[in-house]
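Lecture 7 notes: from sequence to structure.

We start with a single chain of 297 residues. Read the sequence below before looking at the structure.
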Amino acid sequence: MFNRNRLLVLILLATLCLALSAQAADLREARDISYFQGDQQDWEYHLLDVFSPLGPGPYPVLIFVHGGAWRIGDKDNPPHTALARNFAQLGFVCVSINYRLTPRVAFPEHARDVAQAVAWTVNNVASYGGDPQKIVISGHSAGAHLATIVALDPQYLAQVGLTPQVFSGAIGFSGPYDIANSISNAKSGNMTRRKLEGVFGDDPAMWDEYSPIHHASPHFPPTLIVVGERDRLTTEEVSRRFCDALNAKREDPTPPAELAIVPRKGHIGLLFKLGYENDSTAERVKAFIHRVTGTAK
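Now the structure, written as C-alpha cells:
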C-alpha cells in the first residue's frame, strides 16, 4: 500500500509539472519579490510571486497564502504554483506569498507578515496588471487561518495603515478556524497539542483571540469557505461552524457567508484539484471572485 500511495503522489506531481510548463507560456511571472520593509526583514521568507494574464488588465487580484501547519510549506511547492498559475489563466492577478514559520517565529508574527504582503499588493499590484480596488484574500489550511484572521481582525492591517475594507472578499480552503477548540480537544502532552502550543502559546485566552471564528462581526468581507468532504484534518464540521458564526453576526448589506463541500476530496486532494484547468471548484471560486469584485461577465 505504501508503494502504491507513493506512486500515486509521484504521478500527481509529474502531471502538475507538465501542467505548470504548459501554463507558464501564457502568463507573465515575477518571482521572489521582497515585500517587507523594516528591521525584521527576512530575505528568505518575506518574498512573494506575481502571476498575471498577458493582457493589459486591470484584473481582479487573488492573494494566496500557503499552508503547512504554520511550520512548513513554501509558495514554490508545485501544488501552490499550479494553483497560482491556474487562477492567472482564469483571468486574475495571483499574488502567492511566503511568510515566516515556527519555530523561527510564534503567532501572531505569521499574520503580521501576511498583512505586510497585503500592503505591498495594494501599493504595487497595478504595475503587474492588477486592480488594487478589487482584492480577494485566500489561503489553504494554515494559510486559510491566516487569510481569514487578517480579513476579520482589524489589528493586523492597522499596523500597515489599512483596514479589512481593502478586501472585496475572502476565501478559506480547508481552514482551521477555531484554534481554541483544536488545542482544547488535543490531549495534554500529545504531539498535536505540543505543536499547536508551539505556534500559539499555552494561554487559553489567546487561543480565542487567534481564532477567526471568534472575530465574526456584522460587516465581514464576503466570504467563501471551501472544504473537502473527506477532510480529516480541518473537517466539514469546523468549516460549517465558522460559516454559521459569521452569518449569526451578519447585518445587511453584507452577503451571507457561503460554504462549499467538495465531494470525494480530502485535505490535500482539494489543494491539488484547484491547480487544474476546467476544475469545477476553481470555476466556483472564479464566479465568487467576479461577483464580489463586480467584474462578472
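The chain is about 40% helix and 20% strand. Keep this in mind for problem set 3.
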